Amino acid sequence: MNDIVKQLELEPSYRLSRIITVFVVLLFFGWSISAIQLDEVESNGWTVAKNILLGLVQPDTELLFNVTNGVPYLLLETIAIAFLGTIVGAILAIPLAFLSASNIVPKPIAWLVRLLLIFIRTIPAIVYGLMFIRVTGPGAFAGVLTMALTSIGMLSKLYVDVIEDLDTSILETMESIGSNVMEKIRFCIMPQLSALFLSIVIYRFDMNLRDAAVLGLVGAGGIGAPLIFAMNSYRWSEVGSILIGLVILILVVEYFSNKIRTKLVRG
Amino acid sequence: MLSKLLPTKKLTLPNGKIVVEKRSLTPLIVLLLLGFSYISIQVTGFDFGMFINRIREFFVIIQEMIPPTWEYLPQIWQPLIDTIKMSILGSWLGAVCALPIAMLAANNITKIKWISSAVKFLLSLLRTLPTLIVALIATYVFGLGTLAGTVAIFLFTIAYVGKLLYEQMENVDMKAYEAMHSMGLTTIQSFRYAIMPQILPNYLSTSLFCFEGNVRYAAILGYVGAGGIGLLLNENLGWRNYANVGMILLLLVITVYVIETISEYYRKKLK
């Protein structure tokens, strides 16, 4: 028996744990496959799919390029909703994040604020959208409020990770040379946090843009409402032009946000 | 480039040396943000006065949600389980299909350039479409019900896991793969024994993370008729039966929290 074979035999056998893992995964698969109801499938599904593809290839060019009333304006409205929502959410999330950071406030308070944030985060944006429509009436304003609230949930969670990584030795140094609280915040805490916070906010803006496109489905402004109207009346070429506009916008914003974020994080 | 346009500030140190300090871009960025905010306020019709006057209504709704109607619980179980099944099935199939697609997209495994860039482009197209809109389209093609929701989750999972997976594949150590290739193993075989062990933990943890997110998405897919608990949510919101909505949301928060905790535990173990 040579060395290689000996070494191979020394390796622990993972066979049993692998078989169990595969078995559990397959069990989940088997259990969940019962969720599919094939009897609801309509026979004209293929024609609809074909029509949608045709609509994407032959978009309604008038709608796509009409600046005052077409896709560009709708996209501008969607961007505006996402932008304003992100800004408001980003500002409101800062105090909440400090309140839920366990190195800043006592543990029980941090835990309570975290619980609140979990609630805010888990409730789907559409539910907030429907609730805010009762407050402000349908329109882009409801969308802004929804975006702000959903952003708070996720931004605070990501902020907290940054705050808990704060380098406190700098804080002690500044205290030893006699800085007051404002100076400490300005020259120790802000420089450490600002780049990462900005990067998080830009990332969230990216996500909010997609969510803002969806919010129109409940009547909270943006591009979603015309999309669902066009679909309900089977005007696939309009659907095509709206989808093309949306995809291009999201790709462009994603490209720039990735660029800026890499620059912010790497300096 | 921008920093070259702005004049630099010159500081003279006590020992006579001159130090050049770059101008901060912060005022410019703040100005830009304020400008965008102003445009956005005009476009969206942001009205702070109305917000102050009417925000009470929002808390009125929340007050109606508490306490939730506990009697409604038995009716929610089935849609909730449907939602979980939808997200498990969609994530499972999506994660499995993402592997060959990521192989096609990784430019160190697929040597033909145009195939890998075409697949990458397709993946990014799929990723940009919001899940709810994909679900909406799917209801037209596959009819109302859980199948449409599963398809939407499936497509999103392929796009998300596929993207992260091909990025990992492009960063793996290729020496073992090339050695196996040179000994006469086929591409699939050398992939299985050289690259798979390197990416497997990350692949599983990405898939689990995607599954976590999918449970959240699946919860709202019912809104467009794609099955699951979203349908009940929509109905009860429409009837302004906020106590029932409260019950659904409470159950949803608990479910998502439990699934997240379990999946986080396993993701930590995978590292």
Automatic annotation (TrEMBL), chain A:
Keywords: Membrane, Transmembrane, Transmembrane helix, Transport. The gene is phnE. This is Phosphonate ABC transporter, permease protein PhnE. The keyword Lyase does not apply. Belongs to the binding-protein-dependent transport system permease family. It comes from Compostibacillus humi. InterPro entries: MetI-like, MetI-like_sf, PhnE/PtxC. It is a multi-pass membrane protein. It holds the Pfam family BPD_transp_1.
UniProtKB/TrEMBL annotation, chain B:
Residues 80-263 form the ABC transmembrane type-1 domain. Keywords: Cell membrane, Membrane, Transmembrane, Transmembrane helix, Transport. The lineage of its organism: Bacteria, Bacillati, Bacillota, Bacilli, Bacillales. One of its GO terms (cellular component) is plasma membrane. The chain crosses the membrane at residues 25-41, 89-109, 121-141, 147-166, 215-233, 239-259. It is found in: Cell membrane. It comes from Compostibacillus humi. The gene is phnB. InterPro entries: MetI-like, MetI-like_sf, PhnE/PtxC. One of its GO terms (molecular function) is ABC-type phosphonate transporter activity. This is Phosphonate ABC transporter, permease protein PhnE. It is a multi-pass membrane protein. Pfam families: BPD_transp_1.
